[in-house]
Amino acid sequence: MTMKLLSVASEIYPLIKTGGLADVVGALPAALAPQGVATRTLVPGYPSVLARLGKAKTLRRYDALFGEAAAVLAAQVEGLDLLVLDAPAFFAREGGPYGGPGGTDWSDNWRRFAALSRVAADIAEGGLKGWRPDIVHVHDWQAALTAAYMRFGPAHAVPRLVTIHNLAFQGRFGADIFPALGLPPEAWGVDGVEYYGGVGYLKAGLVSADAITTVSPTYAQEIRSPVHGMGLDGLINGRVDRLHGILNGVDTDIWNPAEDPLIARRFSGRALGARAANRRALEKAFGLDQDDAPLFVIVSRLTWQKGMDLMIEALDHLVGLGGKLALLGSGDHPLEGAFLAAADRHRGRIAARIGYDEPLSHLMQAGGDAILIPSRFEPCGLTQLYGLRYGCLPVVARVGGLADTVIDANEAAVSAGAATGIVFAPSDPLALHGAIGRAVALHRDRTAWQAMQRAAMRADVSWRQSAARYAALYRSLLAEAA
């Protein structure tokens, strides 16, 4: 019997994306289908989402959803079965999903994503004629309040699962918003939505969930410690019997070097020579010198979490070793400025593009020799999985999902043909310098380097195994609720 799943998230690829969350939410439904799980995904009706809907059907209207008119629309887009919350007062805005053009968060984010969660709970209660989910799976703080609305409402018997994509983002607001949320008085408390005197959306979801998942096994263990628990380690340790680490995968149809229409020349592990055309196209796109020096790439948010300040300190070292760097990303303005200054200082050896460009990110994976990911913490990471898929060897810190997915090129692993990248620890300048030096030295041995590329490209980075784990977890929750 097919299981009906309601997935709730603030973004979904290919309609709206700021990071890996969108890729996961967009790829998981197709991966779950062979497991007997039919997914409908509820997302906000941002302008970019509504523009892609085409012919949509209105399933429900709200005269006053947190004081505003809204509707739930249904549509099929690129194989995704979507439910879209069309609420112009909340989502018809210029800028990103969470903030304006200047980068500042919207002051009413608490209301925007409470509305999304309230509608998800209504759907779980049977609010759509002819369809009701067997289980509800919500992603990150923007959707986490769904679990609290369900727990304290008529849908309390429907199993609910919360996935943490990044514990650093928690959705914390002042206590003054609680009366407007429409939750009963008993929801205010340490066992409800209250969090250090305010309202915590993610905290409310975690304490109200029947199961909690993270996006890698190592991250599931890391967040139990004060270092990575971000103030929630006590709660998480108290619910450790409900905690599961399930590794993210990637959409191997979209990220497939043998069929990718976004790269200069398609290739496979058996035809690595064809990668050279992508390298030359990448060098040209970034204005880098065309030579055989190791070409490193970075595709990242430019933040402290991602270790980009450590990377700034390593740039002169990288160039001194003979390497080159192409960077694509945006984030903290001082870091953006520092990368641009380094590009000006090392013209032809370092180039930086501030912003995000999906087609360019594919070319960078297809043409780069190695992708640098020196994160201080990384729940899963997807760029290293794309790197493995394209033979762009990951150079990663030994944290979270990076530790779970990359096999270090130590002597034994290289000899056994198992190495798929370079793993270093701790996340500090000295270790990063050493990792870059190891990559440059390995790159000189073309036979060994290509063997590592082929091993990386053979790695299973699909959703196959993880989707099976999610489906098994859903079924265990349904059995528990029966």
From TrEMBL:
Broad enzyme group: transferase
- What's an example of a GO molecular-function annotation for this chain? alpha-1,4-glucan glucosyltransferase (ADP-glucose donor) activity
Please list the residues that bind ADP-alpha-D-glucose. Answer: K17
Does the entry feature the keyword Nucleotide-binding, yes or no? no
Note the coiled coil stretches, chain numbering: none
Reaction(s) the record says it catalyses? [(1->4)-alpha-D-glucosyl](n) + ADP-alpha-D-glucose = [(1->4)-alpha-D-glucosyl](n+1) + ADP + H(+)
Which controlled-vocabulary keywords does the entry list?
Glycogen biosynthesis, Glycosyltransferase, Transferase
E.C. number = 2.4.1.21
Q: Any idea what job this protein has? A: Synthesizes alpha-1,4-glucan chains using ADP-glucose.
Q: Which NCBIfam families match?
A: glgA, PRK00654.1-2
Please state what the protein is called: Glycogen synthase
